[in-house]
Specification:
3% strand, two-stranded antiparallel sheet, mainly alpha, 6 helices, globular
Length: 147
Amino acid sequence: MTPSPRSSPQKRLYLAGALGVLVAIGLSTKIYRGPLDSWVQGHLGDVLVMPFLIGAARWCCPQRSPAVLSGAILGVAIVTELLQLWQPPALQTFRATLLGKLTLGASFDGWDFLHYGLGAWLGYAGLCWLDRLDCTTPGHPAKKTSP
């Protein structure tokens, strides 16, 4: 079985590095203090979580296109945001935990849709860039040229 060009060892290494950077930056947004700290703490994480989830989905499903992965993850984010309007006691108890806040959010914010969309676009663009890398040449990878 031939590995998918989207899952070459070099591309998986780049993807793993990008996921690590996204985790570090994303978590640091929660403790950031400085200019625009309200936006950074409240919304930058929403932007950054999307490329992370799209990259994680690529890791699990390397054969899927950037558009399919980005669209699926954006759909899940939208449904998750809308679920914040539903507040049964069991969900509220879970949302009060750190894991609940990180996965489901604490409260509905319509602006999150804009930030999820921006993050999904960044994730899509990142995967398109990764797909275009030529990792077959020794040394620094170059972009593939169209015939």
